[in-house]
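Supplementary Text 2. Reproducibility record for the structural model of the 502-residue chain.

All settings were left at their defaults, and a single model was retained for analysis rather than an ensemble. We include the record here because the model underlies the residue-level annotations in Supplementary Table 4.
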Amino acid sequence: MTYDRRTSLLVPTLVFVGLLVAIVSSLGAPLVPTIAQVDNVPLSTAQWVLTAALLTGALATPIMGRLADGARQRDVIVVTLTVVLSGCVLSAVSTSFVVLVVGRGLQGVGLGLLPVNMAIARRNLDRERAGRAIATLSVSTAIGAGIGYPLTSLIAQLFDIHAAYWFGAGIVACALACAVVVLPPRSPAASLRFDVLGAVLLSLAVTGVSVVLSEGGNWGWTSARTLGTVAACLVLLAVWVPHELRCAHPLVNLHHLSNRSVLMADVAGFLMSVSMYLVVPIVVEFIQIPSSAGFGFDASVLVSGCVLVPLSLGTFLASRLLVPYERRFGVRSMIPLGALVFTCAASYFALDHGSLWQAFLTMGIVGLGIGFTFAAMPGFIVRAVPAAETGAATGFYQVLRNIGLSVGSAFGAAVLLAYTGHGDTYPSLDGFRVALLISAGLGLTTAVLSFVLPGGDRPVALGPRTVGHDDVEVRMEEEALLEASGAMLVDELDLDSEGRRP
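Retained model, structure tokens:
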């Protein structure tokens, strides 16, 4: 294939690969109640098909992002797609719940693809085309997220859950073929030393925390197994932190936390990610509960997939409101406002859930809330650190966000398990209420901390100031990474060819 031909196909191929994020996400939350019934496991246990993917995604994102800075970007994508394809096939042929969870864990590795895609676009396209490519990646994956949930839910309803995973396998196989043919085999970047020890320590610690949150109810929260696992995780983190601070090429740069604006964005990103996955899967599972249980709407898999569409629409609407809001009020109040909107949505459904339309309304309001919060967070980081350190600072923020999603899913499963009677498949209504109220409490905490933590640091506002090319890339990366959890942000900044707002 000629160089010009390969270049012309580069963006479409990256977009196609990026759609995997939406597909992997859509094979999770809507199918959880069906999997609980088919495999005869409690709903809290079935949620591991979501937690497993989020967990491996949280672990893969910083590792793949680091590898993407090297010379073998195509190899990173090809190996990742091969792992995801294996996971889809394993889930499709699975005859036990354990095998299905293992397959979902392999699929979750694909959640780290978007940073790699954007790194390839930046490395192989000129400045103007790279900016457009990053914007296209954000929009296309957002569209995929909006379509993916109802589409995979429809396939699962018409056939079975295994057919949904076969569909995912087919899409991944096509993307793998395109990547092998189109993507450049090597990039001009020099290979960097990879922090193997840091990656191992962080992976073990995050895995331990997720396992404790999901299995602590079965083990007993004060049992030797639970306390021992928690202690082991703390020891791992106690070793990891000083290692990262001393390492010349750390997996994540912890030095940036000394800036209060960066600290605020990192803390808020983690808390909102935990909160979001204490709401999204909980609402989806709630509406599928048979009405014979005394609550729930006995909704089909297709309807439960459609209930996530307002989430994307809400975040899209928030993105339309961002520019006028920024010009009028600045960015400083966006995180507290979005967190309060999110808190209202979670509290509303916890207290009033008598009709199915309320679930759709709740998800739309949740979308508005996370749209405002996640759009503002990278701005605080970008304006608080030197331009040369933007990637390192936002990298740690992304690690915390992905870990937050995993912890939120596992924590939600733990809450539901605590309210599930022995031998029962479904938890009581109080389990759903408690999970939603905890999410609302975390949202309120985020609102307070995001207002207090920046303190007297230099105010942050997009306003009419010059927005550099690096700023645009960071914003676009954040928007695309949100697609991994089914959320969507498309903040189309009106910039001229030099990266300035007219």
